[in-house]
Design brief:
mainly alpha
Length: 81
């Protein structure tokens, strides 16, 4: 669903959906979710949102995932930090 929002150019809605997802203890983001939502941050130049998502990633098994790390590097380079 998040990726669908991004493909439609609705990155803000993708980020809102991710935030809503974080409130549900039964729903856990996976690699694809993190990559997509970091892409939304890149689209919006949302450095602070990207940094918050980075903190969430650091608490998961995806913190050393090469695909997620690549998305983080991309987000930081596009957002200027």
């Amino acid at each position: 669903m998040i990726n669908g929002y991004i493909l439609e150019g609705r990155s803000e809605e993708a980020l809102r959906n991710f935030c809503d997802m974080q409130m549900d203890v039964w729903v856990k983001p996976n690699e694809g979710t993190f990559v997509s939502v970091l892409g939304a941050c890149s689209d919006l130049a949302g450095l602070s949102e990207g940094m918050q998502i980075h903190q969430v990633i650091n608490k998961t098994i995806y913190q050393k995932n090469e695909v997620v790390i690549s998305a983080l590097i991309n987000m930081y380079s596009k957002c200027g930090d």
